Amino acid sequence: MFNKPIKDMIETIEHFAQTQASYPVYNVLGQEHTYGDLKADSDSLAAAIDQLGLPEKSPVVVFGGQEYEMLATFVALTKSGHAYIPIDSHSALERVSAIVEVAEPSLIIAISDFPLEQTSIPILNLEQVHEAFAQASSYEMTHPVKGDDNYYIIFTSGTTGKPKGVQISHDNLLSFTNWMITDKEFATPSRPQMLAQPPYSFDLSVMYWAPTLALGGTLFALPSAITQDFKQLFATIFSLPIAIWTSTPSFADMAMLSEDFNSEKMPDITHFYFDGEELTVKTAQKLRERFPDARIINAYGPTEATVALSAVAVTDEMLTTLKRLPIGYTKADSPTFIIDEEGKKVPNGEQGEIIVSGPAVSKGYMNNPEKTAEAFFEFEGLPAYHTGDVGTMTDEGLLLYGGRMDFQIKFNGYRIELEDVSQNLNKSRFIESAVAVPRYNKDHKVQNLLAYVILKDGVRQQFERDIDITKAIKEDLADIMMSYMMPSKFLYRDSLPLTPNGKIDIKSLINEVNSR
User: Fold this and answer.
1) Whether 485 and 510 share a structural domain
2) Is the pTM of this model over 0.90?
3) What number is the average pLDDT over the span 284-297?
């Protein structure tokens, strides 16, 4: 069905509150909340927020997980003219503290217990939020978030120094949402029944809530306490009547640890939307075997360009002929270029840095003019952003991914892309999942390459010693990997660490290797 673009996110939600008030908007493990509930609760909370006399357009931290109150609070803040800063309740204390320090919020709304002992910023707790809901106040929107006003601010995981708060405006959000609900690659149905698993502090969450609210659908929340417990996860996901699965590829890999994760047990699933990290051919092939009729979408984009800037439906031909999946056709309103080290555009087929421009590009990092000036600039008269990703554009307009510029290393005179090494390792018949990690010497030069490996079931039993497994893997990959790319040491693990956003935490593995 053809979906029409929306003009305003809140007005669209208000429209559904009028036309389908009793239709569920949010379902948390069977507990339903309707569009009517969302309007009533967000109106009441917006009225309560106005009473606090906060500075106009000042940002507000919202701390919690996948609770319904998180969504109602986001909508209330948008109605009352405030950008929200989502912080996941499972965040490290240092990160919470750093975000609050950078953001200087006028208020903290704590849906989960707020962990910092600080008194300078007022805190509204869950009990007070419920008290506001109970007031059943009506609300007239006289100063909602509009146009270039910040809609939300998401902090990316900076490994050095302070985290960076990416400011996303209402206009940025509309550019993304309207592309997603009208784009033929996504083919998003009306009233989508969508999995809500990635935390709200991760902008992949926008890929589920924005199209769902824009099209009057239902979100099925999966709290992180469940996703972190395999037994609970598999007891829960099979009961969710979701049609669209939105996650990182790593989370789908986790789900596929259960043999029951297939179209027989989950017949409602028609779409998989992936973003946040690279979707490998291996993962996509496994999904295709499990869900032969489902549409698998590979999307790509940085938080700074509002969630995603390109997407493509993965075809069977891609799965049989390509070593690396394309990352999509770019959005029509977001001219995307490949540039060389001098900042000049390169011809199709040549590699360079991916640059995105247009109305989805953020205005920059909150309270951080230095980092903003480094990453954001003007290109051919449009606001633009340096992604830091290596890519190639084909003549057909497909974007190909070449890895992170900051994951490129020099080793024995060779320039090596760590993700290339990881991709090749994952082709071994013995390996379920693997990542390559550099070890540096005291002069900060790469001393050797290591591989963290999860073996396929039954592999360990075939060999007496780890050294024999390593020898077999090296022989298995000898024909496809250059010798200088082959890790010198293999470390075998039952699992690999994930970031709070569900990506393999390569940076923590690099730190682990280099702290020994």
Assistant:
1) yes
2) no
3) 98
